[in-house]
Input
Amino acid sequence: MSLAWADDKTINVRVETRNEMDRTLDEGVAALRQLSIATQGPGILVTRRSPSEFTIELHDSIPHGTTCEKQVWVGVPWKADSTPTSSATR
Output
């Protein structure tokens, strides 16, 4: 699991399990929510790039106080054991 700031308004997330995904995305959204509130900045966009990779960012097209989700990959869903599949398309 990793949560890394790419710049001052973007966080990259990589996870290995569903539990990690939920916990790590919650942490990233909470961090950006605090920044958005403090600066009256834009809302938050969470983009799923693969079964295990996400970007969380303050995005100018999202209104302040709003969190939106987007998926930009087509792949195999999570297995029953909650681990990402390795054959998903990136």
Q: What stands out?
A: Residues 2-71 form one domain. Confidence is low (pLDDT under 50) at residues 80-90. The beta strands are 2-7, 10-14, 43-48, 53-59, 67-71.
